[in-house]
Design goal:
two-stranded antiparallel ribbon, mainly beta, 1 helix
């Protein structure tokens, strides 16, 4: 069965930064998550991190692990 998960480029992800479009997305390990409903991502900012980016390299510095992505909706894949 073919994978029908939508794919998005880094440029498309960057537009979902909480400023340019109503969606607020972040990527982690190639998966894009919708953080629009999270109170921790108001206006596309979460502490010193900005939405619309791949946060894979930044997670090791966070006070939490990747479990934080478990309750978020998957939007697509980063290509």
């Amino acid at each position: 069965m073919p994978d029908t998960t939508p794919t998005y480029t880094k440029s498309q992800l960057a537009l979902r930064n909480g400023q340019d479009k109503p969606e607020i997305w972040v990527a982690y390990k190639g998966v894009i998550y919708d953080v629009s409903r999270s109170r921790l991502w108001r206006n596309g900012k979460h502490y010193e991190h900005w939405a619309g980016q791949d946060l894979t390299a930044e997670l090791p510095d966070a006070p939490h692990d990747e479990w934080v992505f478990q309750n978020l909706d998957v939007v697509g894949k980063l290509v």
